[in-house]
From TrEMBL, chain A:
Domain FAD dependent oxidoreductase: 51-441
CC cofactor: FAD
Transferase recorded as keyword: no
Gene behind this protein: FOXRED1
Entry annotated with the keyword Transport: yes
Topology in membrane: Single-pass membrane protein
Record-linked InterPro entries: FAD-dep_OxRdtase, FAD/NAD-bd_sf
Biological process, per Gene Ontology: mitochondrial respiratory chain complex I assembly
Subunit structure: Associates with components of the mitochondrial respiratory chain complex I.
Native species: Macaca nemestrina
Pfam families tied to this protein: DAO
UniProt KW keywords: Electron transport, FAD, Flavoprotein, Membrane, Mitochondrion, Mitochondrion inner membrane, Oxidoreductase, Respiratory chain, Transmembrane, Transmembrane helix, Transport
Subcellular location: Mitochondrion inner membrane
A molecular function (GO) term: oxidoreductase activity
Protein name, UniProt field: FAD-dependent oxidoreductase domain-containing protein 1
Automatic annotation (TrEMBL), chain B:
Subunit annotation: Interacts with incompletely assembled mitochondrial NADH:ubiquinone oxidoreductase complex (complex I).
Ranges in a coiled coil: none
InterPro entries: LRR_dom_sf
Protein task: Required for the assembly of the mitochondrial NADH:ubiquinone oxidoreductase complex (complex I). Involved in the assembly of the distal region of complex I.
Protein name listed in UniProt: Distal membrane-arm assembly complex protein 2
SUPFAM superfamilies with a match to the protein in the record: RNI-like
GO CC field: mitochondrion
Segment forming the signal sequence: none
Amino acid sequence: VAHTGRTVGRLGEGDWDGKVSEIKKKIKSILPGTPCDVLPDTSHLPPEHSDVVIVGGGVLGLSVAYWLKQLENRRGGMRVLVVERDHTYSQASTGLSVGGICQQFSLPENIQLSLFSASFLRNINEYLAVTNAPPLDLQFNPSGYLLLASEKDAAAMESNVKVQKQEGAKVCLMSPDQLRNKFPWINTEGVALASYGMENEGWFDPWCLLHGLRQKLTSMGVFFCQGEVTRFVTSSQRMMTTDDEMVTLKSIHEVHVKMDHSLEYQPVECAIVINAAGAWSAQIAALAGIGKGPPGTLQGTKLPVEPRKRYVYVWHCPQGPGLETPLVADTSGAYFRREGLGSNYLGGRSPAEEEEPDPANLEVDHDFFQEKVWPHLALRVPAFETLKVQTAWAGYYDYNTFDQNGVVGPHPLVVNMYFATGFSGHGLQQAPGVGRAVAEMILEGSFQTIDLSPFLFNRFYLGEKTHENNIM
Amino acid sequence: MWDLVLGDRRINSLRLVAPMWNGTRGIHRLGGAVVPEGNQKKERKMLQFLNNHFYDVEALRGYLLQREMSKVHLKNRSFTWLEEQHGPYSAGAFFILKQGGAVKFRDKEWIRPDKYGHFSPEFWNFREVPVEAVDASDCEINYEGLDNLLLLKELQSLSLQRCPHVDDWCLSRLYPLVDSLQELSLAGCPRVSERGLACLHHLQNLRRLDISDLPAVSNPGLTQILVEEMLPNCQVVGVDWAEGLKLGPEEQPQDTASPVPA
């Protein structure tokens, strides 16, 4: 209803003639036979109020939404809005991922997250059950991961495997002889030790997980919106710490969501914002004022997540390793796995720091395969000397330049922004666990099941690295 | 002793008395439906229509589904606590017999529950006698239930035919039986696909593997060839690897029953 903006005065005061003409106009519009003003169509806009706004609709954002709705005390107690800029997910890391899950990490928290995710995926039809919908088929290959270590990494691998076994992962160590016995197509030159995951490891279809989560969330009443977050409206409060320092605490109370290909935006009033924007999390954090301050202070600590481009190549090799092939990660960092029944393989390699490709677009560099990936593959698996590349694609890692581990939990100064990003290539396999941890943090105030305190934002300011040795 | 047979009998009678709920179960089970196709489709459409239009129907169906799942979980609860008192073989055998399967101890006869689910309690005395063979056809064993099955360390023959909840994840758990397992049958399991068959390569002592009639395998002929390559000492039975191949006009049909020389 259009307000004229003029205060309505008491009878006898104000603009009597104007009021009469207004009343006449209203009666005319109500009477039949005259056209009435149609209310503007806002169905494409997000709701005006939402308890939680999740920026980013990839697997991490959807996982947080799922656990928020699952763990809320009262059904319908929380309104959750997921804002995703690109509904085709053309650049989203989730869809372009290789889809692997493994427990072979050095940090106990990572191992626990991965174990929980494996049990989530195993029971996915109980967690994401929707009446009337067919059961989900994740196409999970339980073939395991085989990590190879050279002489200098062998000791680290042994201690890692000890930690993994303690946490309950089923991993075993193999000597080069055992390797040759089990996988005759491997050339064990330069390999001192190998660790092989026997259970709960393998690869699956990330699109299926995404689709299943979206379906379940729609049935649970989560709102989805296609738009871009352009502005956070915050309100600040100055408070005194125990050391008598003045600190400005900010809290976001409004999110401006801009629609695609238009200047139209919707201000969404919210109580909590979750930054699950993956490779673009740093931009969202900057919008909230994180990092705007003198360097070296907590106000000046930026979110150190940036997009890094990674290539995946698919090739065909008729004499290649057989059906039992695990995902093999070589000492050089090159990895490959089988794809389907037809002698197709896919793999890649993380480039060294100096060779990082420009993340401005997702163009594939085929020379990288020729020069940096193929020689290592051919050395490790002699059958790969003759192969034919069929296709390739590129995707982004939301790379945490500080210590390549995720950022989870609230920001110390912007009190209602929670992070669930920066997983540098293992976000997909840890998404269920991280989603549950963030939901617990929001609803209970602390981590209940898996303690992810080493992944809080504070560590960037304090300089404490939670380093993970095994990333690909 | 543990006479929870009464509970099993009640479940069996529910299956006979409430045929209309086949629709609910049919949707979430990949096969094994006994109701004829035409009836099932009509029931399904009716249920879907009601589901989409009434919250109560949706909630009721959700509840029934949860109940089905908790029944399966109850069947697969852990019996490992029996191990201390009666030894691993008896504990594992008890689990299989409760599920409706049959066990064979070394040098003894097959122990099979009758149609009421009763079985003879003589196996509690076989503390040191290992279980040689297990026939768990049509049992509702799932991933958690395998904890109990893996107590039988010297198992030589395992039959998981037509088990509705045995899927690829379960197959990846069978590797502890590598030393003893010689015969494995997965015929008719609706959830086993070629991805699960890939993790059978640990079972190097396997001599006979039955992978016939697996609806979830995308290309049975090619899978048969790849599994034969993966397990060279094993006779892989069940799929005619020439099926799906078109013969040329001059070729004579080969004798596909004879094994192909490597």
